[in-house]
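Example record

Each entry pairs one chain with its bound ligand, 2,5-dihydroxybenzoic acid.
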Amino acid sequence: MSEALGTLEELPEDYRAGMAAAGVAPLWPMMRNVLPHGAPNPATRPGHWRYGDVRPLLLRAGELTPVEKAERRVLVLSDPGRGAGAMQATATIYLGLQLLLPGETAPAHRHTPSAVRVLVEGQGGFTIVDGEKLPMEEGDLILTPGGEWHDHGHEGSDPVVWLDALDLPLFVMLEGSYAEEGDLQAHRNRPDASQVEYRAAGLAPTRGPERARPRYPQNRYPWTRTRAALDEMAAATDAALAELDYINPETGEDVLPTMGFTAMRLAPGTAHRPPKRSASAAFHVVAGTGRTTVDGKTIDWGPKDTFTAPVFAEIDHHAHDTAYLIRIHDRPLQEKLGYYEERPR
Ligand code: GTQ
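Structure tokens for the complex follow.
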């Protein structure tokens, strides 16, 4: 164990003034802030957003702010550790709940961060990604990868709400975040790739030698199929937890470079204690109720709620009935950086 490091106050006034004038600062008083021992010291705190609390505020935004004045009508889920107005739910993950009313469109744009939607409520909503129209049904996972044009529309009769997850905080930190505006897209008049090329797991369209694999071949993952796969897996393995990662069907890799998505099915009445993971995570409840403790905070969750866990959190899940969650995390980024880790509890 090293000695306590020197503080700024120990240094003479004139020396401190001289350093400030020269635009330098001593590392040692700050050393443990940026390099704590053994594990990170996250600013992120566990958050819990009850859908029943946010929904009326979101619908009110629909009355107060026309979509033309909002571009995207979104309420951002702010990490309690960073406080109200924080544009992030964890260090790397931005979350927002977006409302689109019948007949509205959210204009086309593209940006450097990637976005993913999980449809929370309502029928008739769709997103067009690079000319492909993706219908959004409850629980569907919809990708709008960085750099791809996307606009949203609504052909139904009731409000549509979805959860946005973006790697925006990372791009802001990189000073790499920006958007371009475009015209609403005409879409190809055919079903999306999840209904044509990628109907079944393990099957991909035949390609000739000259045809490159698309980087983002499938941008919609219908929930009905994910749920059926989880149910079949749970029935076959008898395990308290069934988990499936969303992958790129051409490469088997995570669907996006930075964010990962894992569908979870928790059996009722059994505890599930995952290892401490270096990834931060957000959990969106597609169906079911339960109680999760995150670093000692008790979260009683129900359908359409969202809650978060900082890096290396101690997490204990307990479902009251069969529960389905989508875990949004930054493991893919951490693996690329070479430090993703799991520690046993
Ligand atoms: O739907 O494109 O929550 O650009 C934040 C930024 C949603 C979107 C957000 C965005 C979008």
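Residues 10 and 20 are 16 Å apart (CA to CA).
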